[in-house]
């Protein structure tokens, strides 16, 4: 038997353990190739596909992430394989195999797996790259579909890069073989597990770090992001690590002292074995929990940004089409009748039409209490409470009832709390001063040159003020909301062409275009990031799956002994499902806790509440993890029962 045939025989014999590692490697190679195939596509390199420049840098960044993650994943997997095969290596050494031959065998095995994974990964990448290009064609709004291509640069970079990655790690891990004596290798599987111990100080560190991290995330906002982001990251990592290595042992000890729970049915066996499983797999559970938090937070953030960006867009531009002009019926900007004709001609229906006239205050100055006066660069608008409340009712904004003779400032962003003050400025050529009785954060009309700061007065005081201003000096705002406005970009472009160049700044017809840009950017980010998140998800699940099967022989021996003393298959199944379920879902639960506080910090920074969207992403992740658990548990159960009945 040659070394090559022996290596292939070992792979076939250990295929159940190798399968999760192999499939994860194949998926990594496939995703890397698909991204590389786009980056080196002839149409992208030549600049023919102009829209590709929008996502080129994002894909290059993802390629680096895939390589770094694959390196760490393969490094861990190789180290774990060597550790579980120590008894096998001990037998090879006992039969006369030298250290150099052992290293050669390991390198052959890894080379075989690397070549097969690379070939299968690139093959699947070629198979699915056309679907990837079709999806990008839709997202990038490219008129011609991106043709299929298999660039040699992409194939060479993927094959060469991953083969070098596999072999560098293989050589490094192979060099570690032979440093252990034969007797230690043979006894590796029979070493006693020892007592479960923990440090009270490290338990306290775990609790303190997690509470501190959650506390900082709960109060973090855009102003404190730069200060708190790094401390939160560090404390979460430290706290999570000690959660699994120390705090979990304390919790198991606590359960063991609860006799009613611990000695109920098969719980004693479940928790007795679970303690060693958690201790032995602490690093894996730690990594999986962090990966789970990263996946849910990243996808949740992109999803929330997409929803939140549209909400912010609607808040800043309540009407699809809006414009302002000086005078009540001048129509210097655009004739409303012509606007309605073009809108109807293009098949759109106006669901809301709003017109409001107000008085402009020029060169105004604000002073809040004893604070230093603030001089504004732009004009501001004064409107009546009736007009404001009419606009507010359409936009679901709070109504106002200002004090008699005082104005309430309405703006999109308040900043520091303000209660009362004075605004002074020029109205119709006269210097005037108005008392300000309060501030409200709201927006009832598109920002149209001079209405970002709007003062609302009671009707009597406003009419008294307006009576001194001629009609041709009033500031009139028009707003039109369209049904199915999301596709009205072409109609808006037609209307913009009717507006004289001098008045372009007094229109806001770009809401549909801005939504298109937002959706395009977010969709591309979500589309690219989804593959990286899926890679993380598969790899994290593979780590748990792999660890289950590396301990399969020990578990089979234990359950075989239990069947001899009368334990039924149903009881074995219940024990296995409980243990595997805890190992699969505990890190997910920890990751969800991390992600929820990260979402809370995001809400603080966006000054909004998006919890419902966070739970949607988390629900999808739990569903995917459940499917992975059912597949792994079924496979593990079959192997366990087969071994127990042998």
What does this structure look like?
The protein is α+β, with helices and mostly antiparallel strands. The protein has 21 helices and ten strands. The protein has helices at 3-13, 15-39, 42-45, 53-84, 86-94, 99-140, 152-174, 182-187, 200-219, 225-256, 259-262, 267-280, 282-316, 336-345, 385-394, 459-466, 489-498, 511-550, 552-564, 569-606, 611-645, and strands at 321-326, 350-368, 374-375, 380-384, 406-411, 421-427, 430-441, 454-457, 475-482, 507-508. The chain has a six-stranded mixed β-barrel. Helix 2 packs antiparallel against helix 4 (53-84). It starts with a helix and ends with a helix.
Straight-line N-to-C gap: 29 Å
Strand arrangement in the largest pleated sheet = 2-4-8-5-7-6
Query: What structural class is derived from the secondary structure elements?
Result: alpha+beta
Mean pLDDT across every amino acid position: 79
Tertiary shape: elongated
| Main sheet attributes: strand count, strand direction, barrel closure | 6 strands, mixed, barrel
Number of helices: 21
Low-pLDDT sequence parts: 188-192
Roughly how many Å is the radius of gyration?
Answer: 33 Å
Q: Work out the helicity level.
A: 55-70%
């Amino acid at each position: 038997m040659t070394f090559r045939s022996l290596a292939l025989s070992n792979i076939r014999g250990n295929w159940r353990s190798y399968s999760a590692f192999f499939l994860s490697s194949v998926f990594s190679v496939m995703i890397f190739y698909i991204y590389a195939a786009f980056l080196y596509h002839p149409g992208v390199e030549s600049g023919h596909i102009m829209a590709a420049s929008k996502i080129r840098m994002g894909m290059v960044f993802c390629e680096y992430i895939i390589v770094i993650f694959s390196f760490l994943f393969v490094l861990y997997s190789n180290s774990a394989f060597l550790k579980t095969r120590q008894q096998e290596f001990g037998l090879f050494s006992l039969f006369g195999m030298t250290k150099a031959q052992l290293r050669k065998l390991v390198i052959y095995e890894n080379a075989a797996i690397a070549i097969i994974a690379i070939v299968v990964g690139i093959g699947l990448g070629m198979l699915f790259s056309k679907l990837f290009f079709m999806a990008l064609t839709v997202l990038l709004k490219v008129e011609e579909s991106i043709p299929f291509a298999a660039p040699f640069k992409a194939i060479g970079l993927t094959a060469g890069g991953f083969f070098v990655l596999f072999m560098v790690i293989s050589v490094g891990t192979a060099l570690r073989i032979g440093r252990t004596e034969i007797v230690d290798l043979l006894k590796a599987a029979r070493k006693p597990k020892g007592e479960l111990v923990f440090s009270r100080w490290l338990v306290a560190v775990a609790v303190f770090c997690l509470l501190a991290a959650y506390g900082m995330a709960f109060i973090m906002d855009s102003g404190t992001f730069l200060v708190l982001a790094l401390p939160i990251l560090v404390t979460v990592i430290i706290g999570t690590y000690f959660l699994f290595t120390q705090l979990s042992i304390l919790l198991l000890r606590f359960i063991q002292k609860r006799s009613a729970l611990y000695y109920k049915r098969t719980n004693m066996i479940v928790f007795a074995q679970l303690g060693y499983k958690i201790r032995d797999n602490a690093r894996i559970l730690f990594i999986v929990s962090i990966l789970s938090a990263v996946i849910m937070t990243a996808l949740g953030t992109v999803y929330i940004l997409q929803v939140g960006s549209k909400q912010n867009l609607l808040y800043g531009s309540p009407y699809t089409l809006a414009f302002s002009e000086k005078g009540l019926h001048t129509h210097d900007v655009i004739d409303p009748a012509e606007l309605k004709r073009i809108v109807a001609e293009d098949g759109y229906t106006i669901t809301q039409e709003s017109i409001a006239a107000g008085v402009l205050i020029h060169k105004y100055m604000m002073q809040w209490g004893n604070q230093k006066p603030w001089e504004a660069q732009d004009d501001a608008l004064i409107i009546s409470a009736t007009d404001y409340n009419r606009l507010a009712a359409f936009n679901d904004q709070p109504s106002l009832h200002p004090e008699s003779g005082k104005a309430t400032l309405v703006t999109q962003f308040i900043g520091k709390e303000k209660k009362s003050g004075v605004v002074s400025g020029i109205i119709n050529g006269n210097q005037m001063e108005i008392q300000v009785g309060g501030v409200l954060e709201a927006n009832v009309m598109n920002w149209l040159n001079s209405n970002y700061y709007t003062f609302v007065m009671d009707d009597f005081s406003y009419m008294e003020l307006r009576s001194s201003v001629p009609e041709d000096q009033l500031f009139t705002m028009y707003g039109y909301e369209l049904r199915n406005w999301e596709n009205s970009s072409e109609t808006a472009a037609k209307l913009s062409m009717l507006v004289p160049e001098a008045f372009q700044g007094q229109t806001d017809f770009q809401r549909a275009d801005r939504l298109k840009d937002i959706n395009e950017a977010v969709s591309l980010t979500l589309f690219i990031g989804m593959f990286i998140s899926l890679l993380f998800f598969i790899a994290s699940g593979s780590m748990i799956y792999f660890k289950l099967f590396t301990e399969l022989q020990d578990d089979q021996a234990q359950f075989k002994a239990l069947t001899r003393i009368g334990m039924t298959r149903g009881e074995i199944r219940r024990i296995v499902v409980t243990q595997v379920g805890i190992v699969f879902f505990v890190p997910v639960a920890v990751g969800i806790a991390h992600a929820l506080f990260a979402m809370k910090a995001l809400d603080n920074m966006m000054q909004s509440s998006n919890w419902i969207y966070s739970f949607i992403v988390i629900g999808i992740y739990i569903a995917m993890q459940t499917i992975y658990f059912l597949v792994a548990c079924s496979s593990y159960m079959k192997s366990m029962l087969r071994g127990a009945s042998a």
